[in-house]
DNA sequence: GAATTGTACTGTGTGACATACACTATGCGG
DNA sequence: CCGCATAGTGTATGTCACACAGTACAATTC
């Protein structure tokens, strides 16, 4: 039986969903591996579950937006991800779209029409 | 076989998803019926299909965020929707969350870290 | 050697939109 | 009056993506 907090939490999660791709692409302009990427996102205020992050990374790689490399560092093997050229271009487009959506939201919520 | 444009379109749609609730709640601070609501959203830059809008409205009503009333106007029966008190409160919370997400996106995309 | 942290990944379920479709009513040109 | 555009409200289904709850193993700390 969901109470008000559960409801808000549900909506909050839904609101965050679309921004995850943008956040991941943005963070991967600098090379990172999964664990630190996740930490960066959490620090920036967008925590993401591993179960959501890794499939997302694989999808973005399959779509050619990022590349990954399995490499040893500090005695451990880690998979390093980095934005591709296509990814950089798409990130730019998505940011424009994001700004446009932001404007729409402002138009719809800041004025009574 | 998806080309670059299809890919971007897919991501664009995904990016927009979460903002729909916010847009609908924002637009319904003023009473509207489905058709004009849809027109308002499109005008604001967030077009939404009927098949997405009506189920969304029903869900939001089931969650108590808005109320609806079946009423005649201009010789036609129309279902009018309006934000409830709970809806107003949740809209405020979601807007805060939206701003917080926006800040996170900016942090992640405008600076190289 | 136990616990904690670092690191990567899988499987299943749920939920929500996109897409396409269905239906009725009004107004209008010819 | 007869199409046809527009106004208006819905339903059904498929796809897709995340949340959640696990699995697995290495390094470090105590």
Give the structure's gist in a few sentences.
The first copy, chain A, is of the alpha+beta class and about 110 residues long. Chain A is built from four helices and three strands; from the N terminus they run αβααββα. The structure holds a DNA duplex (30 and 30 nucleotides).
Tally the beta strands of chain A.
3
Helix amount of chain A, in percent? 55-70%
Form type of chain A: globular
CATH topology of chain A: Arc Repressor Mutant, subunit A
Largest interface: A-B, 44 and 44 residues
Which structural class is indicated by helix and strand composition of chain A? alpha+beta
Task: Describe the protein.
The first copy, chain A, is an alpha+beta fold. Chain A has a single domain (4-110), classed as Orthogonal Bundle (Arc Repressor Mutant, subunit A). Helices cover 65% and strands 16% of the residues of chain A. The first copy, chain A, is built from four helices and three strands. In chain A, strands 1-3-2 form a three-stranded antiparallel beta sheet. In chain A, a hairpin with a 2-residue loop joins strand 2 and strand 3. The radius of gyration of chain A is 17 Å and the shape is globular. The N and C termini of chain A lie far apart (36 Å). The mean pLDDT of chain A is 92. Chains A and B meet through helix 1, helix 2 and helix 4 of A and helix 1, helix 2 and helix 4 of B. The first copy, chain A, binds a DNA duplex (30 and 30 nucleotides) through residues 13-14, 17, 20, 33-35, 48-52, 54-56, 58-59, 74-79. Chains A, B: Residues 22-92 form the Transcription regulator PadR N-terminal domain. Chains A, B: This is PadR family transcriptional regulator. Chains A, B: It comes from Allosphingosinicella deserti.
